[in-house]
Amino acid sequence: MYKVDEIILYDTEGVCRISEITEKTFGGKKQKYYILNTVSKNSMTIYVPVDNEKQTSKMRKILSSDEIYKLIRNMPNEDLIWIENDGERKETYKQIIQSGDRRGLIKIIRTLHFQKEQLTKQGKKLHMSDEQFMKSAQKILHEEFSHVLKIEPNQVIPFIVNELKIEHAN
């Protein structure tokens, strides 16, 4: 069970603070809810029924700064996960994004970034759905990394690049 004021990740909405745990009546049914507020500039309130496993499974503990640094150091070793079949690729990427698996998100970003570079050399563009998957994965990671590391979301990529340079130099 989560606690009030705990910072978590919720689904693809990103970093949220649990503002309260209270009983609410929706549709004539009284239930206990986690009240989540996104911490991003465009704040949103999300009601998650405490007893709804499908909804609460979308709530995940936020990473520590040590866990983030470890993820960053391991980025160059992560495999690319390009799947030629569009339908299979979409389903795989969708599952990874919904699961919130940070290593999986990094793999999506690396794969699609590499694929985009290859296509650009051929004068082609990435499929719109792949572009959306990359943006979704980046949003989730950028928001979490920026919150935990106390940097602006637009500073996440330069931060990661710098950390990888430092790691490579050692």
UniProtKB/TrEMBL annotation:
Occurrences of domain CarD-like/TRCF RNAP-interacting (ranges): 1-113
GO BP field: rRNA transcription
One Pfam family linked to the record: CarD_TRCF_RID
Protein name, as recorded: CarD-like protein
